[in-house]
Amino acid sequence: MEKRNITEILKQITLFSSLSEQELSELATMTHISDYDKDSIIFTQGEMSKNVMILIDGVVSIYKHDSKGNEVVIGYFNRYALLAEAATLRKTPLPSSARFQTDGAILKISLDGFERFLLSHTSLSYAIIQSLLEKIELLQQNIHFNLAATSKEKVLNFYQKNPKLALDLKQYEIASILSMTPETLSRNISKLLQEEKLIQASTGYKIP
């Protein structure tokens, strides 16, 4: 992909929104794009990454294997998500594996070049810190929610907070995220749809 196209893609990523044209062009010199087919493995647990990775197209699943070798999906990510940035920047082994659920592409920035770039761009460093803090907060919320919420509450919460992702994923993939069977997910979706119809019939109010 031509450099000018990479620069245009960088402009669309919130992380780099404060950079000037010249700074974006500089960043583009240390950047390349890798295309992937559906089911391609991006990285596996224990590997070391030499690139900062940003998903720019497609849907990616992040997963681990339990003690019995079963695949446990941690979550799904779509466009402009940073992937494994904490381990990459700390230069430690990646804590999980990643696979494309669709065809897609990842923008990769050389870690060595990115580190040098960070030293002279404090606003970018702050944006990365904010991204990490948001992920920590989200993880804490998910842990609390998964421990305390009912199946119906989990389903409703997922669809309310992830409308775009819900359209990209199959029901069995959503069920995996919510740690429930596809049958349980389907049953709770039916209950929620029925409740919405009852509310509309009795009050005339349509749930957004």
Short structural description:
The protein is an alpha+beta fold and 208 residues long. The chain has helices at 3-11, 21-28, 85-90, 111-119, 122-148, 151-161, 163-168, 171-177, 182-203; strands at residues 31-36, 41-43, 51-57, 60-65, 71-77, 82-83, 97-100, 104-110. The protein contains nine helices and eight strands.
Describe this structure in words.
- Keywords: DNA-binding, Transcription, Transcription regulation.
- This protein is of the alpha+beta class.
- It has a domain at 3-121: Jelly Rolls (Sandwich), CATH 2.60.120.
- It has nine helices and eight strands.
- It has a four-stranded antiparallel beta sheet with strand order 1-8-3-6.
- Helix 1 crosses helix 2, helix 6 (151-161) packs across helix 9 (182-203) and helix 8 crosses helix 9.
- It is elongated.
